[in-house]
Design goal:
With 327 residues, the protein is α/β, with parallel strands linked by helices. Helices cover 45% and strands 16% of the residues.
């Protein structure tokens, strides 16, 4: 059976606070753990008032203390923003706090618009070009490679499960070359999904830590007892996507009945595009849609995204989804 995991952007809702968002993330992680999800990942985004995961490793420490068994990790750390040595220290610390539970998903994008280059005081174009070498540097630290003279502590020899992330063909090629598990962000960038998975599986080079390709694909999933209610819950995230793509991002808005029907042609195209990797509806509908998606992708894992304005609604969605796929 395909395993389920959770991707959380730590959404900050309109009228809400960051403190409430972090409390909701911890509560969602506890529900995911109880419902049998394998992983709980947090994504790094910067300078976005509706997303609270910028200091990803700090948020993961909060999640780790709220849970006890579920794997926790980054989906992902945008490595060009950082020094690999510092990331090794951060995730080595997490491994010491929560042994055997830490994933490090690595992405090449900045997780923000172009202004972040000045804020970070980095040449992010050059850093993106150095991405493969930085990934290999991290792998060397975690492997405990003996010829490393300056060793991150914590971090050297840490038990970290590394992943390559992607929404294009580049990430698939890198994951295959380095023998890493691969996660594809189909929940917001579905266009290259099939080609990326084919390239990854074709070119995968087995290494000691992973002897065959391992694929996880992200979907937007909203489950509720009634299909209309699931569509209503999904409308908060759809509004956020539309606002982001049209240059006016903000906090997560309340749901709107009949949102899709209210859209103009341009906004409808945005919604239809991000809905290509989605399962919205009753538990039976969600089970069928996820099942069809797994048949298409042959994914080993599905990681479910999907922010709701009311945190309890997403907790219910996670429970219903897990129950539906277990039946």
């Amino acid at each position: 059976m395909t395993e389920l995991s959770v991707l959380d952007l730590v959404p900050v809702r309109e009228g809400g606070t960051l403190s409430e968002a972090y409390e909701a993330a911890a509560g969602l992680a506890r529900v995911a753990e109880e419902a049998g999800y394998k992983r709980f990942w947090v994504a790094e985004h910067h300078a976005m008032e509706g997303i609270g995961g910028a200091a990803t490793s700090v948020v993961l420490a909060h999640i780790g203390h709220a849970t006890s068994t579920i794997r926790i990790g980054s989906g992902g750390i945008m490595l060009p923003n950082h020094n690999p040595f510092v990331i090794a220290e951060q995730f080595g610390t997490l491994d010491a706090l929560f042994p055997g539970r830490i994933d490090l998903g690595l992405g090449r994008a900045p997780g923000a618009d172009g202004r972040i280059r000045q804020a970070f005081r980095k040449d992010l174009m050059k850093a993106a070009g150095d991405f493969p070498q930085d990934v290999m540097e991290l792998a060397a630290y975690f492997s405990g490679q003996e010829d490393i003279s300056l060793r991150p502590n914590p971090g050297f020899g840490a038990d970290i499960e590394m992943w390559a992330l992607g929404s294009s063909l580049y990430g698939a090629q890198l994951a295959a070359a380095l023998g890493l598990p691969y996660a594809f962000a189909a929940h917001f960038a579905p266009d290259h999904l099939d080609d990326a998975l084919a390239i990854y599986r074709r070119d995968f080079k087995p290494l000691e830590r992973l002897d065959k390709p391992h694929v996880m694909v992200a979907m937007n999933v909203f489950a509720a007892e009634e299909a209309d209610e699931a569509e209503r819950l999904a409308s908060s995230q759809l509004q956020s996507f539309v606002r982001l793509r049209t240059g006016s991002p903000g906090k997560l808005p309340p749901p709107v009945d009949g949102y899709r029907e209210s859209l103009g042609p341009m906004e409808r195209r945005i919604v239809e595009h991000v809905s290509l990797a989605s399962a919205v509806g009753t538990p039976d509908m969600v089970r069928e849609k996820i099942g069809d998606f797994v048949k298409r992708t042959q994914a080993d894992e599905i990681i479910v995204a999907g922010a709701t304005y009311e945190p309890q609604a997403r907790e219910t969605s996670l429970r219903l989804t897990a129950e539906a796929l277990a039946s």
